[in-house]
């Protein structure tokens, strides 16, 4: 399908905020701080930053370049690059769609819980205590209601298209997210116990470094930047041809990493403030409580110790989490929707409701088995499928797509790129270093 008949981001800022919104999600605001707390504080932080710079950023440039060249969904784009081998292109595109759908299926459940915790303090303020309690007490009915609520929000935005849906809502929601962040951080640092959390965050404990930590850090970097599952490939396909892709990718990666680092400044001090207020954050064996317990038990308990002000802060915190989740979920749903729209000539609205509804049903299955399925689906899709698909895209760009074709695509937004240091290093780096590094990291536990 020609680019003229497809949606496009209308402004460069709109694309940056949408792509950053896709990248900025629960992986940053929930996953990164709790991974940091569980893995030696600053030690995990340093490894994570290394993974972002050495693997995630080069791969982000690769995905955006592949996507803009193809001007299509992942299947259509890969078929265009892999001329003569459409079966391989279709298989990889379908796997990316499955991975994005799996992530969205468990993501919607978690985001629904967050929505419940955002609404509950408001209900408490107007004395609807029983309704507030229902929203924060885990039951199958509550899980399914909140999952459906969040899923419908995602479907609503995606079915409206690129400019009127994804771009418009990303440019509205991302500034709100940043404002909420800084208000929350400023308040937390007025509380006793916050400095202890800051030290935990910034001072490395290198005894925690292990193959598992390195794999977790790589998975976190891929999950955080929405790599591997085709979201950035699809967003790249909506990017105008005059955009400087390496510069734009750098800005997206910088915003995403900045939000992750900022989230650490909020969550870890909040944990130690909670501990100072008598809330348990470690179990009997001295280990940090699970990330779920931290977000849904520790922080709400801390807010409760603050009286009425705590209700306002709780609502702000969980609204922040829901916004971050929504800007990511719309990018994940866009992957299978764009494939259905362009490969099957489906109406966008119908495709969004059918696919979004199917993923919602999968989320309901997870709701009924939260104890086992959430962790399993998250592990398979984010820790394994995302990096391995990322390696596949590196191979496609480095070995399948002709080098001159890559250069020609990049030159449309930066005519002088061939003479710079980036072009002298990046193609070879993606061709050799990125896939080898990804596979080597997976092999670490077996060495």
UniProtKB/TrEMBL annotation:
The primary site where this protein sits is: membrane
Q: How does it sit in the membrane?
A: Multi-pass membrane protein
Location comes to:
Membrane
Tagged with keyword Transmembrane: yes
Keywords, A to Z, come to:
Membrane, Transmembrane, Transmembrane helix, Transport
UniProt keyword Transmembrane, yes or no: yes
Membrane-crossing ranges are: 12-31, 43-66, 87-120, 140-158, 170-190, 221-239, 251-274, 310-330, 350-369, 376-401, 428-446
Pfam families attached to this UniProt entry: SNF
Coiled coil ranges (UniProt) are none
Name this protein carries in UniProt:
Sodium-dependent transporter
Q: Which InterPro entries match?
A: Na/ntran_symport (IPR000175), SNS_sf (IPR037272), YocR/YhdH-like (IPR047218)
């Amino acid at each position: 399908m020609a680019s003229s008949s497809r949606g496009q981001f209308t402004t460069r800022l709109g694309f940056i905020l949408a792509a950053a919104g896709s990248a900025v999600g629960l992986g940053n605001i929930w996953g990164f701080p709790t991974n940091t707390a569980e893995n030696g504080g600053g030690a995990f932080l340093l490894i994570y930053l290394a993974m972002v710079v050495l693997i995630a950023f080069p791969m982000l440039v690769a995905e955006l370049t592949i996507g803009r060249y193809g001007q299509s969904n992942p299947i259509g784009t890969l078929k265009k690059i892999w001329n003569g081998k459409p079966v391989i292109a279709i298989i990889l595109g379908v796997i990316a769609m499955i991975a994005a759908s799996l992530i969205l299926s468990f993501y919607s459940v978690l985001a629904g819980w967050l929505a419940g915790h955002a609404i509950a303090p408001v209900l408490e303020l107007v004395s609807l205590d029983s309704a507030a309690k229902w929203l924060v007490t885990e039951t199958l009915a509550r899980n399914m209601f909140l999952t459906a609520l969040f899923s419908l929000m995602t479907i609503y935005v995606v079915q409206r298209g690129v400019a009127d849906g994804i771009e418009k809502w990303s440019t509205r929601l991302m500034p709100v997210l940043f404002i909420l962040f800084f208000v929350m951080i400023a308040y937390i640092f007025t509380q006793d116990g916050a400095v202890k959390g800051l030290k935990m965050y910034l001072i490395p404990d290198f005894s925690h470094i292990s193959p598992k930590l390195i794999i977790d850090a790589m998975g976190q970097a891929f999950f955080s930047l929405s790599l591997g599952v085709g979201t950035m490939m699809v967003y790249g396909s909506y990017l105008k041809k005059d955009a400087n892709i390496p510069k734009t990718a750098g800005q997206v990666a910088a915003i995403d990493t900045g939000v992750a680092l900022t989230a650490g400044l909020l969550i870890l001090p909040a944990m130690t403030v909670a501990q100072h207020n008598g809330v348990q954050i470690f179990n009997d064996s001295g280990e940090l409580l699970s990330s779920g317990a931290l977000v849904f038990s520790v922080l709400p308990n801390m807010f409760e110790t603050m009286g009425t002000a705590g209700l306002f802060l709780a609502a702000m915190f969980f609204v922040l989490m829901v916004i971050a989740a929504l800007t990511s979920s719309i990018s994940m749903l866009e992957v299978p929707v764009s494939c259905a729209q362009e490969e099957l000539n489906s109406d966008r609205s119908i495709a969004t409701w059918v696919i979004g509804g199917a993923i919602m049903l999968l989320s309901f299955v997870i709701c009924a088995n939260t104890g086992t399925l959430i962790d399993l689906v998250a592990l398979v899709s984010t820790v394994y499928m995302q990096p391995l698909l990322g390696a596949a895209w590196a191979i496609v760009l480095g070995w399948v797509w002709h080098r001159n074709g890559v250069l020609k695509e990049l030159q449309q937004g930066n005519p002088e790129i061939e003479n710079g240091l980036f072009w002298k290093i990046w193609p070879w780096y993606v061709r050799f270093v990125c896939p080898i590094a990804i596979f080597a990291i997976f092999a670490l536990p077996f060495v």
